Amino acid sequence: MARPLPSFTILKSESNDYEKKNAAVSVLSNFIQQEEEKTEGNPIDAIDFSAPKFQKKIPLETLAQILDYELYTREWFVTGNVNPIYFSEQFEFQDPDVKLVGIENYARGVNKLFDQNTSRAEIISVEASNGEEKKNTITVRWRLSGKVNIGPFGGLTIKPYICITDFTVDPDTGLIVFQEDFFEIPQWDILLSALFPFLIGKVTSEPAPPVKRERYPMMPINFRDDQVKDWSLLDGLLSKIQNILAKS
User: Fold this and answer.
1) Exposed, middle or buried: residue 33 (CB in 10 Å: 0-12, 13-18, 19+)?
2) How is the chain split among helix, strand and coil, in percent rounded to 5?
């Protein structure tokens, strides 16, 4: 399994529990299949995918706040360092090119595809929606940048661009059952920019600007790790650091 290629998300599961939706993905995924593991061990192995699921029934807005904190600190859209407690056993992923089943398949593919030294998934916003157009949905806007491990010359560099991720939450269990990714620029733009970077800003669009967030997202008080005893002190310290950085 695997995840975004400059223009498409290429997810490839070792169990082949996925569907490639166009010929380009079929060809490009061959390059991923030929990649050998560069290091012994895999950080994804440390994730307990059999951990008990999140059992608390909470408002969608609170879950969005929790995911904002988790995604900001883990950047699992590129690291694969997911927290599986929020995901259903029936979790499915989809983007314009690929369908995939299973949060572990997703995590391993993401980690394998993205260069872990350069890739970033910078969170811009996380919002809950429960209206007519989107029900039981949490929408994440984020900036993708870095490199993907495709090709014979150290991979392809991704022009920074904005992604939109919709998490669909099961109203009965409170778990994420579906994730769908969209891109704010056309797929041809992303692919051309990766293959021919000299076209950026001429034929293709400019890179997405750097992400600036005014505040570091916080885990809601009732869901914080008991190992951290004085969260108010930590919150105050982080707030002061942010103010200093904003003025510098």
Assistant:
1) exposed
2) 35, 25, 40
Q: How far apart are CA 92 and CA 178, in angstroms?
A: 5
- Which conformational region is residue 165 in: left (phi greater than 0), alpha (psi within -120 to 50 degrees), or beta? beta
pLDDT tens for 6-32 read: 333 434 434 344 444 544 445 455 555
**Residues 11, 18: Cα–Cα separation, whole Å:** 8
- Could you tell me the pTM of the whole model? 0.79
Q: Which two tokens stand for residue 12?
A: 């490839």
Which one, of 113, 64, 105, lies nearest residue 82 by Cα?
Answer: 105
Mean pLDDT of 76-87: 96
Q: Nearest-CA neighbor of 88 among 104, 66, 77, 72?
A: 104
